Amino acid sequence: xxxxxxxxxxxxxxxxxxxxxxxxxxxxxxxxxxxxxxxxxxxxxxxxxxxxxxxxxxxxxxxxxxxxxxxxxxxxxxxxxxxxxxxxxxxxxxxxxxxxxxxxxxxxxxxxxxxxxxxxxxxxxxxxxxxxxxxxxxxxxxxxxxxxxxxxxxxxxxxxxxxxxxxxxxxxxxxxxxxxxxxxxxxxxxxxxxxxxxxxxxxxxxxxxxxxxxxxxxxxxxxxx
Length: 225
Fold this sequence. Notes:
With 225 residues, the chain is of the alpha+beta class. The chain has eight helices and seven strands, in the order αβββααααβββαααβ. α1 packs antiparallel against α2.
C-alpha cells in the first residue's frame, strides 16, 4: 500500500523540478524540505514550519489528500500556527528522517502490511488515482483489489466489445451467427475470443463462450456483447 502511495506521488509531481527522487526518499525543495521515504515503516510526519513559503502549502495539501485517499482517517493533520500539535514530537520525527538514508533493518514489515484500507473515495476521484490495483492472491492468481470504498454505479472498466449479436431462438443458430461474426474479425481478435473461458463445453463451443462472457446491451435488450 505504501509503495502504491509513493508511486502516486511520483506521478503527481513528475514534471515538478522542486520534487527530487533520491535513492531512498522523495525530497520537496520548498520550506524545510520535507521528505517521503520509500520504506513506509520509517515515516512519521510530512511537515514544514515555513508555511506560505515557496509553495510549501501546495505540496503539503496535495500529499495530504493523496495520503487520505490511500490511508483514510489514519492521516492526522495539524497546524502549529493554530496551536495544534502533531502526533509525534520533533525529536521522534528527526530520528525517523535520519533513518531514511540508512540501510533498512531486517524483519521490519512495510507499513502496508500493518494497516488496513480506510480510504476516501472523494480524494481518490479528485486526484485521479486508480480505484483498484492488480495483486497476486495466495492460491488464486492475480485479482483486482479495490483501493477505496467504491460507490454503487461507479464505472470500473470500459471495453469495446469484439462484436454484438442478436438474440436467437436456438443454440445452433447462435453458433452460426457467432461464426459469421468471427470471420469478420482480425486474427488477433479471433484469438482473444477463443481464449475466453467456456463454462459450457461440448458441441456448441462458440455459444458456450458467449453464454459465459457476454452481457446484454441494456435492460431487456435483444442484443448482447
